[in-house]
TrEMBL record:
It comes from Xylanibacter rodentium. CDD domains: Glyco_tran_WbsX (cd11579). Gene3D superfamilies: Glycosidases. Pfam families: Glyco_tran_WbsX. This is Glycoside hydrolase family 99-like domain-containing protein. PANTHER family: GLYCOSYLTRANSFERASE, RHAMNAN SYNTHESIS F.
Length: 383
């Protein structure tokens, strides 16, 4: 049995009235991607899509092609980012709603609640030097949690919905941000059972190192030694599992804590604040021993470059190639090989985050290389 690779999926490839108002008429993820320029010697920008072109997710043909590409690479399904802000307000919901209502593509899916505020810095680099201001705030309430569950119940009951231990997966991007998260989880488990489901398999996204203390949430000099504490902090809140990211740990161990501290502090000012890390070197530090825990689902990171969104004030990985990514996939598979088959899960970060240089869809430079890397690594693990 192959490891279960689930790809995080960004739906921001169709215009919506809110984005038209905030970022300009016709804004989508492609707006930043197409305008990207090299910012330092050897910088690979812009990234241009190949087979699918600058697609529009309102077209069902595009969604079918994406599913076919993913299926051929050995990806189990898509995990759609779900933007629910409270009081019934959603954004970017159209692609997933059409997938759900049409029954097409016939390809597994689940949801990740992207429960973060949108500010004037969320999507567009021209705003990055201006003072942060709120444009869409997350709102939480008991009543809204109930409405949220019932809005998603048809998805949870869809035959395509991805399950673990018989329960539909529901991932949460910022689990620590939900007030009384234990109460939220308990409520949804109760509602699930009342509506004919065995429960929900809750997964919280977290890091294995950070510039903030896991206990106090105060700034610290990049704690890279206590991944278990970061994971347990989420699991102890009632989550069944965690999605783990090792990027901050990798960067800190590659550059040192003082340089990371300067990068963080300069990022709060008008000073230049770019920190570049070689992809292969970063991947040597990306995973930790605790990623082999039964209830930890590591991430696969093919590439990382947020300069289309953030400009110079960001932290790109450089020298990424499909060949190096294939080694990353193989190493991740080794980490999870002793888990129960149903828990051998890797979250691909991501399928189509083009504005973060973080995708596996075909591009002009590498063609199908990123997808072939996954396919080849899976083939090797089955030999």
């Amino acid at each position: 049995m192959n490891p279960r690779i689930i790809a995080l999926y960004l739906p921001q490839y169709h215009p919506i009235p809110e984005n038209d108002e905030w970022w300009g008429k016709g804004f989508t993820e492609w707006t930043n991607v197409a305008k990207a320029k090299p910012l330092f010697y050897g910088h690979y920008q812009p990234h241009i899509p190949a087979d699918l072109g600058f697609y529009d997710l309102r077209l069902p043909e595009v969604r079918e092609q994406q599913a076919q590409l993913a299926r051929e690479a050995g990806i189990e399904g898509f995990c759609y980012y779900h933007y629910w802000f409270g009081n019934g307000k959603q954004l970017l919901e159209r692609p997933f709603n059409e997938v759900l209502q049409s029954g097409k593509p016939d390809f597994p899916f689940c949801l990740c609640w992207a429960n973060h505020d949108w500010t004037n810095k969320t999507w567009i680099k021209e705003k990055s030097t201006k003072r942060d201001s709120m444009i869409m705030k997350m709102e939480y309430s008991f009543e809204d949690h109930i409405a949220h569950f019932h809005a998603l119940l048809p998805a949870f009951k869809d035959k395509r919905y991805i399950k673990v231990d018989g329960k539909p997966i529901f991932a949460v991007w910022a689990p620590r941000d939900i007030p009384d998260v234990e109460g939220f989880i308990s409520l949804w488990q109760k509602l699930a059972q009342e509506n004919g489901l065995p429960g929900i398999h809750f997964i919280g996204y977290t890091v294995n190192a950070s510039g903030k203390s896991v206990s106090s949430n105060k700034a610290t000099l990049w704690d890279t030694e206590h991944a278990a504490d970061y994971y347990k902090d989420i699991l102890n809140k009632g989550f069944d599992a965690v999605i783990s990211s090792g990027l901050a740990r990798a960067q800190s161990l590659c550059h040192g804590k003082l340089k990371m501290l300067y990068y963080y502090m300069a990022g709060q000012t008008f000073l230049p604040a770019t920190i570049r890390t070689d992809y292969a070197k970063a991947m040597r530090h990306y995973y930790v021993e605790e990623d082999s825990w039964e209830n930890v689902y590591p991430t696969l990171l093919p590439q990382w470059d947020r300069t289309p969104r953030a400009g110079i004030k960001t932290d790109p990985l450089v020298n990424s190639t499909p060949e190096k990514f294939q080694e990353t996939v193989k190493n991740a598979i080794k980490l999870i090989k002793d888990k129960q088959p149903e828990h051998q899960i890797l979250f691909l970060k991501a399928w189509n985050e083009w504005g973060e240089g973080n995708y596996v869809e075909p591009d002009l430079k590498f063609g199908h290389g990123w997808l072939d890397a996954i396919k080849n690594a899976l083939a090797e693990c089955n030999r």
